[in-house]
Design brief:
CATH class of the largest domain: Alpha Beta
Largest sheet: 7 strands, mixed
CATH superfamily of the largest domain: Medium-chain alcohol dehydrogenases, catalytic domain
Number of domains: 2
Shape: globular
Strand content: 25-35%
Oligomer: single chain
Number of helices: 9
CATH topology of the largest domain: Quinone Oxidoreductase, Chain A, domain 1
Helix content: 10-25%
Order of helices and strands: EEEHEEEEHEHEHEHEHEHEHEHE
CATH architecture of the largest domain: Alpha-Beta Complex
Distance between the termini: 25 Å
Radius of gyration: 20 Å
């Protein structure tokens, strides 16, 4: 095992308490913790960039889910990319860059089978947390596999200025969608969608009822709805979907911090009358699609046909603020934290 000179302690962010409703800074602790040394089959990684994502809000709650909850008093987790500084695995060398799931800390002791080598010469490191990472794969699998997109489909994407939504709309256009519509939470984001990303129409959901705005933007209805929001957006999409339309259920950010049951959707019987298909998905179930995804999306990136915006917050101490800002929609594109 080869290793560099390593510190004895480093900074990490821990879950201090489980939030009730919206998280607050008091739900996080900033702690100096011992830096471990890798045993056989392990790596020590100096993290450089980490991701904050909506799904992390669910992990702050107790209870059974598709991924274990964060533990109170322990460091949070999430995608990060960094440099191997010590290796106990024959498959990884000191100096390589890797992506792995143990962000929220300066140094991560990672089992080698949970890390993947990335190449900064091909794309900047932050891209492996966004468009070339699980975020991009989520958009790709949700649109093309779950929603079974065809070039005839009009597509509506909620949360369209976020990390996943902004890629979904572009991918639909690149595959030939005649019309792509997005919702977002500000006039700036609406302009971003239509003027920079090529959406055919977009609206600010704060300007009026979502259903009315969606009907105006899609006079001939929609065929695919990529749902990042739930609630009134899902209700509006069900109303406007054409017969045999498809819904890819990726998230429901409007409900993540709710303390009361949602009032919508109230029109689920239309799933029956319109013969709609509605399917939720978790991207980790589709890791086998990564090679196809990287081949197609990598080509789009090289050709300059696919774009990713990033909102970057500097410093691990500010990671809770970045996370809370992301939940409030303060980001355009992918929200990242440099460490």
């Amino acid at each position: 095992m080869v290793q560099q000179s390593l510190p004895e302690k480093a900074f990490e962010v821990r879950l201090a308490s489980r939030p009730q409703g919206w998280p607050t800074p008091e739900n996080f602790d900033h702690v100096e913790a011992p830096v471990g040394r890798p045993g056989p089959g392990q790596l020590l990684v100096r993290n450089e960039v980490m991701s904050v994502d909506p799904y992390m809000r669910g992990r702050m709650n107790a209870g059974k889910s598709y991924v274990p909850p964060f533990e109170v008093g322990k460091a949070l987790e999430g995608a990060a990319v960094g440099e191997v500084v010590a290796s106990g695995s024959d498959d990884f060398e000191v100096g390589q860059k890797v992506v792995h799931p143990l962000g929220w800390r300066e140094f991560a002791l990672v089992d080698a089978d949970r890390a993947r080598v990335v190449t900064p010469e091909i794309a900047p490191l932050p891209a492996y947390l966004g468009v070339l990472g699980m975020v991009g794969l989520t958009a790709y699998v949700g649109l093309f596999d779950v929603a079974a997109f065809t070039p005839r489909d009009t597509v509506f994407v909620s949360g369209a200025a976020g990390a996943v939504g902004s890629l979904v709309g572009q991918m639909a256009k690149l595959r030939g969608a005649p019309r792509v519509i997005g919702s977002a939470g500000s006039a700036e984001k609406v302009r971003y969608l239509t003027e920079e990303l090529g959406f055919d129409a977009a609206f600010n959901y704060k300007d009026g009822p979502v259903m009315e705005q969606l009907k105006a933007a899609a006079p001939d209805g929609i065929d695919v709805y990529f749902d990042n929001v739930g609630g009134d957006h899902l209700e509006a999409a069900i109303e406007v979907l054409n017969d045999h339309g498809r819904i890819a259920g990726c998230g429901a950010v409007s409900q993540y911090n709710a303390t009361e049951p949602p009032s919508a959707p109230r029109n689920l019987f239309q799933v029956v009358t319109k013969r709609l298909e509605m399917k939720g998905f978790i991207v980790s179930d589709s890791i086998q699609r990564m090679p196809d995804f990287l081949h197609e999306v990598g080509a789009w990136l090289r050709d300059g046909r696919l774009h990713e915006s990033q909102t970057v917050v500097d410093g691990l101490r500010n990671a809770p603020d970045a996370f809370l800002g992301m939940l409030k929609g303060e980001n355009i594109g992918k929200m990242l934290v440099t460490i």
